[in-house]
Structures are given as structure tokens and as C-alpha cells.
Amino acid sequence: MSQSTFDDDDLFGEAVEEMREEVESHLNEAWDALPDADDIWETSADNVLGVLNGLRSSLDAGDAEDHLRQAKKQFVLGKRADAFDDAEDLEEEIAEVEAVVTMLSDAHEQVGELASTIPELRTSLESDDEDDDE
């Protein structure tokens, strides 16, 4: 059995390694929580509203936001403590995940707005068609 050391530098080094592993773990979990590309591309709906509702559901970032938040918290803590010697790769990956989550969120909102407009538009067009028939 190896002897544990309680030297401040050694403990700090271990803590930094654990912090980096935690950031990387949360980033991996964030990537895994994102929807698959096929889920937002393929559909089996019978009409436009079904397509939009299915798309809106598939554009949910789910737990990816929570994992991204946890990764960023640990990263900010480590960065402010000047703990990371090489934080650029973590910073880049955080930015990549954040960009995807932001795109998903924006698309989710846009599709939601469209999904709520389409039924109203259809009703208006149907009433116009009925007026023309009279």
C-alpha cells in the first residue's frame, strides 16, 4: 500500500486532477444528453402541426443544460483558482457544447412559435374558404 502524502502541493494537484475529470465528465454527459441528429431530422407525422410538435419535442436539450452548468461551475472555480495549467481545451469544449445548447434552445422557441401560429392560420384560411363558397 502506498503512503499518502498530505503536502499542500500534492493535495492541490490531486484536487486539480479531480476537478478537471469532473469538468470532462459533465461535458461528456452533456454531449450524451443532446438529441441525436436523426431525431431532429426524421419524422413520421401525418401533418405539418405533427411535424412541428415532434420537432419541438426533439429540440429539447434536456439534461445537457444541467451538465453544461455543472461543467462551467467547476471550470470557473478551477480557472479563478488558477488551478488549470492547460484550460484551453476545456474552454473550447464548453463553448462548443454551449453553442449547440443555445442553437437547440433558439430552434425550440422558433418552432414553438410556428406551431402555435399554424393552427390559427389554418382556421383563418378555412373561414376565408367558407366565405368564398357562400
Automatic annotation (TrEMBL):
Residues 80-107 form a coiled coil. InterPro entries: DUF5790 (IPR043808). Keywords: Coiled coil. This is DUF5790 family protein. The lineage of its organism: Archaea, Methanobacteriati, Methanobacteriota, Stenosarchaea group, Halobacteria.
